[in-house]
Amino acid sequence: MPKIVNHQKRKEQLAEAAWRVIRREGLEGLSVRRVADEAGMSLGSLRHYFDTHAELLAFSMRLVSQRVNERIEQLPFTGDARRDIEMIIAQLLPLDEQRLAEAELWLAFAGKAISDPAIRKMSLEMHDELYNGFRRMIDSLILNKLAKDGIDAEQETKELHALVDGLAVHRATFPERVREDDLMRIVSHHLNRLFKN
Amino acid sequence: MPKIVNHQKRKEQLAEAAWRVIRREGLEGLSVRRVADEAGMSLGSLRHYFDTHAELLAFSMRLVSQRVNERIEQLPFTGDARRDIEMIIAQLLPLDEQRLAEAELWLAFAGKAISDPAIRKMSLEMHDELYNGFRRMIDSLILNKLAKDGIDAEQETKELHALVDGLAVHRATFPERVREDDLMRIVSHHLNRLFKN
To answer: Which residues form the HTH tetR-type domain (chains A, B) (predicted)?
Structure first.
């Protein structure tokens, strides 16, 4: 493996160790020392990849979005707008262990975004990326004349975005209250109302 | 003022000082010493009201729900189901400084609920209380034959609950992205779909 690839791969392994620390102990449990321990690496070796706590945190947060985007790019799109939209949204909801981890991390970041300006800035990037994704879905429904007449793309996007994030928070935090099969059933029911009959 | 009332009032003032610390510094910034400082009280005096950090935190979390409930009980209900439901939901969304504080606190608690069992337990109580409130709204629509035929009360409740919490998170965290007047417009648009035409 070329050295540059190995370097990137090692950074991702350290970010995944950071994810485990955050999920177990919350964001305030995160320190470069804890992550080095979690990854079975010396603090000196970790410093070869991340100079500061802030760099490690920023990389770990961005890797969450990157993993979601990679999965979405690899989806077997069908050209059927309804099925394609449901496939994308399913990648954003905690429907397996990987997606549960992402939802828990997103919630930990959101919970600190108000009191921590650096986390807020990165959370806003994630928020905007998601918003833009939902907006493209709604715009494609309108463009392809699949949406009910007269729908307001901006309002519908904000509603769908809030619904999906709210469902992810509820399922990640209270799995005994919101079942896994509730998630796509509720999303699908919501989409029914946007599509022409 | 009788001593017992004074005692309760002082506890609420300390909880409000705890809210300010949590909003400014996050939940991990909370300590009995920080709250005593914030309230301009000695640590010894604070201990007269709360023995432990856990007691102070539990009281502060429960006071959030209690304040929301008090406001809802005092609403000038009209008997018009649509207007009454919108009035209640408006009390749950960050539409003024008090409600913004509540949304920020709720988000800070939710962000720690996954990694902290005590916070999780109290967050679940808040979640259930809200769920039950939304369920009563949906049930009353069905009972009064105002809802569209064939709606599933449990699924509709979960959807409305996720939508309102998602909107509260978005507005509290990214006020530059979700405007204040988006909130009730989106809720009202969603309710339109539940009501018979």
So the answer is: 8-68
